[in-house]
Amino acid sequence: MASNLELPFREDRQLTEVMRLRVQSLQQRGQKRQDGERLLQPNEIVYRLDFSQQSLRFSGWNIRLSAPGKLTIIGTSQHWTPDLTHLMTRQLLEPAGLFWRSPEDDQDAPVKCFEADTQEFGERIAELAKIRKVMFFLFAFDDGMNKDNIDCSIAFKVAQKN
Questions:
Q1: Which of 54, 85, 143, 149 sits a CA distance of 20 to 30 A from 32?
Q2: Is the dihedral of CA 153, 156, 161, 162 positive or negative?
Q3: Cα–Cα separations (whole angstroms), residue 120 to 55, 117, 160
Q4: In sequence order, which ranges of the chain are alpha helices (DSSP H)?
């Protein structure tokens, strides 16, 4: 028998600021990013998931977009610390989760996504939860979407121990 667990994505303002300072520092010094380094884009914010349990099976996404636009959720495969190690492109999970609402959609219409990609992405998150207490994500906002227009969580089934 399994129980349900819904985990909200939480904005990590401190980590976002550290990553923005890295971009600003490089620009001020006229330097380029390290080979393979992934810099935070202006339309991106760092979010996190804190896993209270480790034995999880992906169940589904709970994404609500209150306005038209696109939200791309990009997971990281490693825990990184921007003060010591920079985020590298090889640490980003594929596929990313892409969710959107078109301007002509009714307010109560379901959010659109590429179902196979979001299913695979959710399963990868569940796998990484087995060895992690926290996981970080880049949320990219496009086509008019912003952090005030989203409510995002991910649902899992928790495996019961015998």
A1: 143
A2: positive
A3: 17, 5, 23
A4: 13-29, 115-129
Per-residue pLDDT reduced to its tens digit, 54-113:
899 999 999 999 999 999 999 998 776 666 678 888 889 999 999 999 999 988 889 999
Name residue, tokens 């995002």.
152
pLDDT value for 82 = 64
Residue recorded with tokens 């970080």: 136
Say which amino acid occupies 50. Answer: D
pLDDT reported for residue 44: 97
Exposure string of 67-94, with b = 16+ CB inside 10 Å and e = fewer, is eebbbbbbbbeeebebeeebbbeebbbe
Q: What is the mean pLDDT of residues 1-9?
A: 88
CA distances, 8 to each of 38, 95, 144 (Å)? 25, 20, 22
Between the CA of residue 157 and those of 12, 33, 58, what are the distances in Å?
A: 25, 40, 6
